[in-house]
């Protein structure tokens, strides 16, 4: 069974220290970053080495498209999601892109990408911007739904982020603590729409490191009001809740890494991410050992449904999807 902590490693192969760390039962997942990736074969070998240590670990990556794309050399350079909106066949293109993304990620041995972004492009948040499908909630929902259909067809679980919407807050939660001063009614009427309409199609949701003071003075990822009352209660969401990276500045309101992982799990997260800081990850691990945190049964649904054969690039669907995106001018 997967533990409640997702961590990272420093290089393109496992060190003895990494192996020891990953053997801890409280560790349930590992996320790869650009520094861990050289080319498809290397990623596949790294994933095999990780699974030799812990076969049940969830292996993830951020492969949204546009500027957030960790797998690059030897992979399709995916467009930013905002580029779909202006095409007359946008839904078909978004579905093809979701399938291509998922197929490539699965083919190297990873379980899932943290995608799609369900935030809306209000023209305010530089950190979201082109990562969003649209500014209009209905259209964003349709395009994200098409992208999810493509992911599911390839065998990948979908993670909607960043609940209940990061598109209005201007600050970047990687380096600051963003605030969204709107009322709950305003957020429900606009930014919450994609999460509500797609909640039955999402296997997981990742909350934002954003404070919505009219609702709660805690960031959404530490807020029982958001995660239990709104997401679980009002939206009826039954899937996995991942924290965003608890090393980000937007999470520091909850104290050190031990305090942050405890706050995230207490609020309702099933798994907490602690990345780019091994000392913080070890502190979070110690906290989970002390708390005797019980792993969530929900995490099982994030494992890949199937891994494509290595020769997937010869598959007719692959060739057709690639041709569709090329003809639309979305990829080279």
Automatic annotation (TrEMBL):
Q: What is this protein called?
A: Beta-hexosaminidase
Instruction: Identify which residues the record assigns to the active site.
Output: 174, 244
Q: What class of enzyme is it?
A: hydrolase
Task: Print the keywords alphabetically.
Answer: Cell cycle, Cell division, Cell shape, Cell wall biogenesis/degradation, Cytoplasm, Glycosidase, Hydrolase, Peptidoglycan synthesis
Please describe what this protein does: Plays a role in peptidoglycan recycling by cleaving the terminal beta-1,4-linked N-acetylglucosamine (GlcNAc) from peptide-linked peptidoglycan fragments, giving rise to free GlcNAc, anhydro-N-acetylmuramic acid and anhydro-N-acetylmuramic acid-linked peptides.
What molecular function terms (GO) are annotated for this protein? beta-N-acetylhexosaminidase activity
Q: Name one Pfam family in it.
A: Glyco_hydro_3
Per the record, the pathway is:
Cell wall biogenesis; peptidoglycan recycling
Which BP terms from GO are recorded? carbohydrate metabolic process; cell division; cell wall organization; peptidoglycan biosynthetic process; peptidoglycan turnover; regulation of cell shape
Q: Which domain of life is it from?
A: Bacteria
- Give EC number(s), comma-separated: 3.2.1.52
Q: What is its main location?
A: cytoplasm
Question: Where is it localised?
Answer: Cytoplasm
User: InterPro entries, alphabetically?
Assistant: Beta_hexosaminidase_bac, GH, Glyco_hydro_3_AS, Glyco_hydro_3_N, Glyco_hydro_3_N_sf, NagZ_Beta-hexosaminidase
Q: Which organism is it from?
A: Pseudomonas luteola
Q: Which reaction does it catalyse?
A: Hydrolysis of terminal non-reducing N-acetyl-D-hexosamine residues in N-acetyl-beta-D-hexosaminides
């Amino acid at each position: 069974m997967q533990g409640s902590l997702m961590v990272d490693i420093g290089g393109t192969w496992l060190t003895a220290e990494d192996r020891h760390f990953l053997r801890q039962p409280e560790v349930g997942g590992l996320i790869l970053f650009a520094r861990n990736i050289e080319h498809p074969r290397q990623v596949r070998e790294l994933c095999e080495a990780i699974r030799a240590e812990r076969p049940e670990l969830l292996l993830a990556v951020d492969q949204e498209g546009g500027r957030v794309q960790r797998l690059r050399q030897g992979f399709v350079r995916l467009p930013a999601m905002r580029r779909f909106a202006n095409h007359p066949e946008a839904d078909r293109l978004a579905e093809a892109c979701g399938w291509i993304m998922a197929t490539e990620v699965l083919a190297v041995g990873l379980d899932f990408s943290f995608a799609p972004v369900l935030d809306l492009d209000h023209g305010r948040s530089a950190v979201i911007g082109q990562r969003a499908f649209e500014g209009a909630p209905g259209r964003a929902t349709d395009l994200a739904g098409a992208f999810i259909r493509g992911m599911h067809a390839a065998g990948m679980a979908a993670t909607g982020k960043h609940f209940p919407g990061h598109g209005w807050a201007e600050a970047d939660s990687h380096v600051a603590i963003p605030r969204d001063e709107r009322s709950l009614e305003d957020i429900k009427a606009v930014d919450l729409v994609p999460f509500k309409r797609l909640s039955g199609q999402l296997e997981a949701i990742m909350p934002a490191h954003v404070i919505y003071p009219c609702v709660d003075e805690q960031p959404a990822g530490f807020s029982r009001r958001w995660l239990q009352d709104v997401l679980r209660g009002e939206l009826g969401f039954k899937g996995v809740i991942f924290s965003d990276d608890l090393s980000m500045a937007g999470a520091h309101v909850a104290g050190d890494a031990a305090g942050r992982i405890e706050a995230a799990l207490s609020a309702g997260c099933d798994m907490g991410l602690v990345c780019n800081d091994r000392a913080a990850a070890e502190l979070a691990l110690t906290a989970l050992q002390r708390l005797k945190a019980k792993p969530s049964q929900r995490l099982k649904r994030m494992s890949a449904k199937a891994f494509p054969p290595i020769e997937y690039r010869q598959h007719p669907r692959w060739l057709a999807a690639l041709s569709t995106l090329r003809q639309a001018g979305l990829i080279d």
